[in-house]
Amino acid sequence: MFQLPIRTFDSEHSKGSSELGQLPDWNLNDLYTSTDAKELVGDLNWLEKECDKFAKDYEGKLKSLSADQLLNCVLRNEKISAISGRIISYAGLRYYQKTTDAERAKFLSDMQEKVTIFTTKLVFFSLEINSLDDDLLDKRLKENTDLFRYKPIFEKIRALKPYQLSDEIEKFLHDLGIVGDAWEKLFDETIAGLKFKVGEETLNIEATLNLLTDQKRENREKATHELARVFMENIKVFTRVHNTQAKEKEIVDRWRGMPTAQMGRHLANQVEPEVVEALRNSVVKAYPKISHRYYELKRKWLGLEVMQVWDRNAPLPMESDTLVSWDEAQTIVTDAYTKFDNRMSDLITPFFNNGWIDAGVKPGKAPGAFAHPTVTDVHPYIMLNYLGKPRDVMTLAHELGHGIHQVLASSQGQMLSSTPLTLAETASVFGEMLTFQKMLDQAKDKVERKVLLANKVEDMINTVVRQIAFYDFECKLHDARKKGELTPSDINALWMSVQSESLGPAFEFVEGYETFWSYIPHFVHSPFYVYAYAFGDGLVNALYATYKENPKGFEDKYFNMLSAGGSKHHKELLEPFGLDASDPEFWSKGLSMISEMIDELETFD
User: Fold this and answer.
1) What is the pTM of this model?
2) Separation between Cα atoms, residue 180 and residue 115, nearest integer Å
3) Which end of the chain is more exposed for a tag (fewer CB within 10 A), N or C?
4) C-alpha torsion sign, points 215, 218, 219, 224
5) Burial degree of 574 (CB within 10 A; 0-12, 13-18, 19+)
6) Strand partners of residue 358
7) Phi, psi of 370 (to 5 degrees)
8) pLDDT in tens, 479-518
9) Helix ranges (DSSP H) in 287-383
């Protein structure tokens, strides 16, 4: 399946190239030059034959393989993963450039179906790995140092052993993934096709969400009501998608014996449930001193008796609406990264010069932003919807962090490069912090410093508080779905139960806001993905505090951590910095950084 960690925003808008400069487009030729390229046809033919041959050579035989033979088996499996990943990345990236294009949607579906059919024959591989005796596997790993390098992959596969089903059912579930893809595409195409009438203009979702950050309160209010109206018109589709996806997950989890709906995500993230629970509890406990306190400050700055939901991301009264051109954004982010370490320059330059970024807002283009690693013998691609606002500069910094992480981790090879979601946000959030600190250091006066601090606090609240609220919403949604079909009103009520708790008493919630769960793609594409943002932000805050306290040697440790990809557990990666995510104080340290910024904001008039 082609799944991207799409980063959604509450502020998007379309601006012409004349205002922002020339915005870059993707050049996908490094993957394939066209949908009928001979290289693509050749890869599909190779993949079909190699999957057949792989199954014939190894199915039912893993127990009898020597260490050298097992290594060869792993390497062949890795190459299959690389070729299939290349095909699906190309088809998926083309689709996300214009999700309303029927030809692109068909091509992605066709490629997903072919790859799924071919690779179904490989399902036995992980099943047989889990059937190996512990002593036998340990013996094989010790006999070959090249094989031992793949130990983290074996450990990740074997973590699923208690939840593994029969070979026949596992193959059936693998094939069934195509159906889940169809529901995801229905969601994407519905979102991309929505039209919003605001005043005399007909806008897409990007431009309409952008109005929630407009200087004029009346425009924010109109946009909120129009979003609510259109979401309500389509609420049956969104409810059906969520009901179906949640039910499918419940069935699979029940057959596997998963103790909770979240367990699959925790296993994939290689993070203990108690660590996630400690994060969640720490954030919820901190709601009053972070989000409630900040929004009360903002209510006063805006001169309001009570804040409406359209005021949440409103610019401050003294905030400039000057746009940041693409060239300016590139300079700001590049300078921030290279000030941290000169090695960053060589890593960043190809993204801007070689067509690795697609930045403009275009009809039918997927909303939000992401960095997709493709495969380790190519390079990542970054998608933005660049609007020229300071927050978009931070988004560029964020996604470039992902891209740098993916480039460095590619040295691990296809199977070991993939970083668990909890650590995948490390470089991106750290890059944002570097960019923010550079901009803060260059603030001309107290007013500019206040605006920068306030915007950073809001971004951190959106990353930590809002995402944990999203996580709680998902937990409630999946628990409720186990008891039966959910109506739109049921889901709306679950959404509102977490919104009021997380945002606090400064807010009043307009009728219609209860439907705003419907446009968040994470809930459909990657259930329980959202806590990774909070995990990453808390981890980076602790990391950055360590960097400021003792910068000597930090850069090399940081590069080593990113270059490790998925080859190490979070405990191993954080140990050189003297940090431990299983320690409750770890999360308190990260949250205190946000609280300290609010302390400073309280000192401004």
Assistant:
1) 0.81
2) 15
3) C
4) positive
5) buried
6) 383
7) -160, 165
8) 999 999 999 999 999 999 999 999 999 999 999 999 999 9
9) 293-302, 326-340, 343-353
